[in-house]
Specification:
With 225 residues, this protein is α+β, with helices and mostly antiparallel strands. The protein has two helices and 15 strands. The chain is rod-shaped and about 120 Å long.
């Protein structure tokens, strides 16, 4: 009986009343002795620590997610920089003959000149087998071409810079008694992807060239649009 009485007394001393504060956290109010209050305080602290631990865990998970998003954002920024910061490079220059000398033409119809001796072709947009430059980048371009004729027996040269089927500029010499005349012209023009630019020798006309490379065709991208 004595043991039962001691247990009842100890139990009554350790009664605590659980209350809920404004933060919805449980607060234990001691209803017994001082030692009982110590037990209740430890219980309350333990539960508070447990709740804080859950909050810290949630915060850590959120931080991990934010770090992952930040890494993805940094990758996107680098990709954008590679696209916008890396300006396309397009430039070419070529002369009419790879070797030898003599006239090119006449042809019965207007014919694109094939500039075979390629000095440069950054971007590979110029095709020496056809003489045609094809835009692979939308933008503003600069083109220049030159023409040279020889007295045979009179000057008979007309060449035009063509954009698709539209004539942009021309150089000609079809009269006079002097030989070895030369001329050039240039344009700045916008191009869409797929536009073709070439130098066209007009029907029944000729141009002369040799190792001095008088007849040239060059162009390059000024800026994208």
């Amino acid at each position: 009986m004595k043991k039962i009485a001691v247990l009842i007394l100890a139990f009554s001393c350790c009664l605590c009343e659980a209350q809920v504060n404004e933060n919805n956290d449980k607060v234990y109010q001691c209803l017994g002795s001082t030692s009982c209050c110590d037990v209740c305080s430890l219980t309350s602290i333990t539960q508070n620590l447990g709740a804080m631990g859950e909050k810290v865990t949630n915060m850590a998970e959120k931080i991990t997610l934010l770090e992952a998003k930040l890494q993805n954002t940094e990758k996107d920024v680098l990709e954008l920089r590679s696209l916008t910061g890396g300006t396309p490079k397009v430039a070419f220059s070529a002369a009419l003959k790879e070797s030898g000398s003599g006239n090119t033409g006449p042809f019965t119809t207007a014919t694109p000149l094939q500039y075979k001796r390629v000095f440069s072709n950054t971007g590979n947009s110029y095709n020496p087998s056809t003489g045609i430059f094809t835009a692979t980048v939308k933008g503003m371009y600069f083109f220049r071409f030159s023409m040279f004729n020889n007295l045979n027996p009179v000057p008979n040269s007309v060449v035009s810079l063509m954009k698709n089927n539209v004539r942009l500029a021309s150089v000609w010499d079809t009269s006079g008694s002097d030989g070895n005349d030369m001329g050039s012209n240039a344009v700045v023009t916008p191009l869409e992807v797929g536009d073709n630019v070439f130098v066209e020798l007009q029907a029944n006309r000729v141009v002369y060239d040799d190792g001095m490379n008088y007849n040239t065709f060059s162009g390059f991208l000024l800026f994208t649009t």
